[in-house]
């Protein structure tokens, strides 16, 4: 986990990390596809930080096999007390698979919500400049699940969303989806629908990460040349041009055109 002298709003997304089982192969794929460079983090040789124009985007950890989890992009949420949050998750039908463990200058854990979507939470310092939808950070985080309102109840109670406190996230219900807002900015979406209990990772309940690229078609072409696959061909969505890709080890993510209005703030 990256760190600095700042702390994110409790309950807000604070980082994303690829849990993989081949760090070198991951860098060889995401470097040309996303235009990222990499530097060593503070967590040892099994971890690296992806950079866009010198600014941190995400972490990559060679830990999927040791943790016994699938290769995946994982969203982390900031918390004040990891033990309290772990207890809330268990009390509400979720599971805590790993941790909380001391990691660097904080504590991290991996969990799954009551529908099975995996997420992480982090107690400790975070990057001041890392905010969803801004600069180098991911453009968007979206929970794809069966029942967005049930999910909102789960996460709302776990992370104290919509409590009315000025230091917590707010939620808004828009077009059958739940928008999560922090400091007046939309940072995540919980969307329900026809999600089936199938083994295909594209349709299981999951947190999905969107990254900005300058050219969606070029990113797809580069991904295929680097051994990746296309899960959803380039197309026009309500927010812009996008495509969903899978890296050679199975990590699933979406690329969207830079400047796409992923998280519009209501006027």
UniProtKB/TrEMBL annotation:
SUPFAM superfamilies: Glyoxalase/Bleomycin resistance protein/Dihydroxybiphenyl dioxygenase (SSF54593). InterPro entries: Anthracycline_SecMetBiosynth, Glyas_Bleomycin-R_OHBP_Dase, Glyoxalase_6, VOC_core. Transmembrane segments: none annotated. Residues 12-124, 137-258 form the VOC domain. It holds the Pfam family Glyoxalase_6. This is VOC family protein. It comes from the Bacteria. It comes from Streptomyces blastmyceticus. Residues 245-267 are annotated as: Disordered.
């Amino acid at each position: 986990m990256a760190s600095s002298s700042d702390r994110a709003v409790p309950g807000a997304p604070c980082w994303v990390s690829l849990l993989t089982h081949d760090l070198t192969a991951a860098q060889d794929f995401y470097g040309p596809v996303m235009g990222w460079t990499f530097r060593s983090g503070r967590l040892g040789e099994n971890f690296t930080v992806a950079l866009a124009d010198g600014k941190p985007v995400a972490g990559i950890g060679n830990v999927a096999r040791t943790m016994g989890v699938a290769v995946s992009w994982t969203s982390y949420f900031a918390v004040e007390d990891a033990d309290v949050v772990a207890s809330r998750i268990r009390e509400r039908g979720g599971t805590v698979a790993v941790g909380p463990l001391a990691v660097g200058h904080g504590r991290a854990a991996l969990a799954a919500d009551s529908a099975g979507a995996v997420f992480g939470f982090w107690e400790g310092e975070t990057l001041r400049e890392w905010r969803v939808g801004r600069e180098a950070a991911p453009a968007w985080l979206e929970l794809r699940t069966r029942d967005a309102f049930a999910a909102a109840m789960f996460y709302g109670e776990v992370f104290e969303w919509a409590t009315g406190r000025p230091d917590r996230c707010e939620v808004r219900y828009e077009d059958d989806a739940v928008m999560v807002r922090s400091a007046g900015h939309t940072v995540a979406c919980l969307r329900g629908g026809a999600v089936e209990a199938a083994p295909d990772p594209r349709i299981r309940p999951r947190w999905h990460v969107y990254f900005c690229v300058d050219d969606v078609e070029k990113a797809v072409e580069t991904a295929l040349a680097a051994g990746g696959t296309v899960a959803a061909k380039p197309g026009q969505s309500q927010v812009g041009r996008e495509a969903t890709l899978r890296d050679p080890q199975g990590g699933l993510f979406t690329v969207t055109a830079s400047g796409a209005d992923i998280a519009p703030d209501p006027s």
